[in-house]
Specification:
Largest sheet: 8 strands, mixed
CATH topology of the largest domain: Alkaline Phosphatase, subunit A
Strand order of the largest sheet: 6-5-7-3-8-9-4-10
Strand content: 5-15%
Structural class: alpha/beta
Radius of gyration: 28 Å
Amino acid sequence: MRATFTSPLALAKLVVAMLFLNAALSFNNWWPTFAVVPDARLAPEFVLLWVFLLLTVHFRGSVSNRLIGGLAAVYLLYVIGRYADVTAPALFGREINLYWDGAQLPRFLWVTARDGSVWHALGIVAAALLALWGLYRILRAAIAIVAHDAVPRAIHSRIGLGLTGVAVALAVANTAGVRATWPVISRPVTPSLVKQGVILRDALSPVRLAAALPTSPGFKSDLAALAGSDVELFFLESYGAFVFDNAAAHDTLAASRAALAGAIASAGRWVVSAFVRSPTFGGASDLAHLSLLTGIDLSDPVRHHLLLASDRPTLIRHFESCGYETYGFYPALSWQWPERAFYGYDHFLEARGLGYRGPDFGYWKIPDQYSIARFHELNPEHADSPPRFLFFATINTHAPFRPLPPYQPDWSKVLSAQPYAPADVARALADRSDWTDLRAPYIRSIAYNYRWLAGYIAQPRRRDFLLILIGDHQPMGAVTGEGASWDVPVHIIGTNAALRERLVAAGFRPGIEPKHPRLGGMHELTPLLLKAFDGHGGATLARTSDGMGSDARRQSGRCGPVQARGRDQQAALGR
């Protein structure tokens, strides 16, 4: 029996229900916000729902309320998938990864909400759950209207069936990649959900995980070319190729960059620069950290978790085997971090050990300038102490890039009770976070980085050091725009002329400005550095600070196979 519309109101309800169900899976991101804008194109999954309802009515005569509830739940999952699919690339410059991002989300939410009241946090959670429940109810009502009113009418209509056939053909062609359908059919969500399912399947399979971890590079360098210098590896948060590739950002930062280059030259040092490709974009800094420390490509985030369960060699353990004392410095951390057991630092320092009592600047509170000054106060250098390998993860250039700490040019005041003028603090804290306006504050945060780094390099030091500055990833897509590269700058600053020539021969460019093309992936930088640091090859090298030349260092056995874990790792494992 044909269904008829008893009133214009019934017809209007039907039209609204169908438009809503289609819009729920065809919206796009409203860049650079977390909001969405509607898209008039046809959603492939809405076509799939329509065909399913047609077949159900054809073979069963009607659609039960229970089935409608199940379809609404599945449709809600697709709506969430669509939101992640359009929002993550727009704001973070990369696709969502359920396995990795699902583990990071609770930590991000905790850091964001930890300064608010418990009731405020619970209110946000309750509001989110209520919104999802409300959306489910609306989807259920819309599907019921379509199933009970539209489908019985269309199933007996040649026009309805003909339009259905056209929609199915367009959706199939779109899914197959036919570009001509793009103006009328939105991108499907199903492939993204299937991809997430494959990631979860592989992550939960030990056999698949074992096959997913590549071979480690050889850690055979004796590090003699370093001549006993300290090595300081600073991972600069969100320091991406955008600051060089974007003309406006490049020009705005020209003066700050020139000041840094001037400070390097005034200290009697050289600098060489290059680009490498980060394994991540807009977040998940750990992937970049461990890609460089292990020489393993972690662009597949599943490898990260497998790596943490392994005993693969790292730069940390290799420097230990060559007589270096290793320090892990993470001022952003203020919670237990069991993953540090893999890293195996001799000494590990995070926010709670810094004793910072100043104003909180943003989510991560502590100014990078204070952090590095405090580190050296807590770990003074001595001429007769072992050479040092320092890993420092900076934080003040983390999104949303404000409020930004003031810079204190008088480093003797940085650790004092009042490091900044009250007016400077008030002005900095008045610059509230705004997730809809990120590009300008990002550029200002990079200028702050250049400024404190220039001041740091100018500080007197008891002994020589090699400084490696490298970005962990590009800033989020709300800064770069969609389609940005994953390249990040790396600068190496030192005094050893022979080492400089090796780095230039390996592809680095003299000066503070890197040039494309990139050297390779971040993991490929690891063997390059190890080769440059090795004493073989005929380079003329200075003697180390303890009077031991490269031959004596090799004979000492301190650069044998990297097996032992660091003292910090043993403590974390309870050994």
